[in-house]
Amino acid sequence: MADQYYTASEAQERLGLSKAMFFRKVKQGFIRKVVPPGMKQGVYPRRDIDGLALSMQMLFEQDQGITFSRSMIADQVEELEIGSRAFGRNFITPLPERIIFQQKNEFTFHSLKVEGTVVGYISMFYFTDEVLDQLLTGRKIERDIKVSDVLPFPRLEPFTIYIDVLVIDPALSRHLRTLYAGILVSRFADLLLHLRSNGYLFDKIYTVTSSSAGEKLVSKIGFEKLEHKSLVPARKAFVAAFDPEHIQVLQTRQRKVLGFARR
């Protein structure tokens, strides 16, 4: 039963609607409620709710002119400025190296744009175990990543992904940062599913945070802290196993954010 229906609270969360708005839509007939035999409480078909959630997301992003795509060189120029504002230019890889990173691994940089302007981006890599360990322990930071460290994603064999940056432009308002962060996370989840469906068999995703806000975000989307891994007190290493449950966590977070934006 649970795999076919959402409870009211689950459906409300999936759609990112307030309780009042959710039940208003139910009463108006926009959201179908069913009462299975032997039950007193109404439930909501998962297919209906998931389809409505996807439709709401697509309409919202289309209305806002929001796109998520592989970064072009012009996008990387804007990403460099966002990264510098967020972390400081000394911690950000210079543009020439970034361009070569993308040439070595086409999936390295992806940007979120609103009306053609980059508002956030994500970078991900595949490294040898040695380089990955250096990043997780803090013996290496983004600026230290060399062109020779960057490996293309292999197909049809297990590997791990390292998320180096997931950032929204700090110059934006808090409301917009929250909104765009949710969309960026959701679009990244879609990208991961796309990669897996095309034979990129990564099984774990690693990342490092150096702020309380970053730590809170990665914890919310299903990452677990690697206790005592980082040698640098301000840096925390995290890992998440790739599975359908984790992807649903990422997508649910985006629904919450869009609901917050509408209220």
Automatic annotation (TrEMBL):
Domain of life: Bacteria
Protein name: Uncharacterized protein
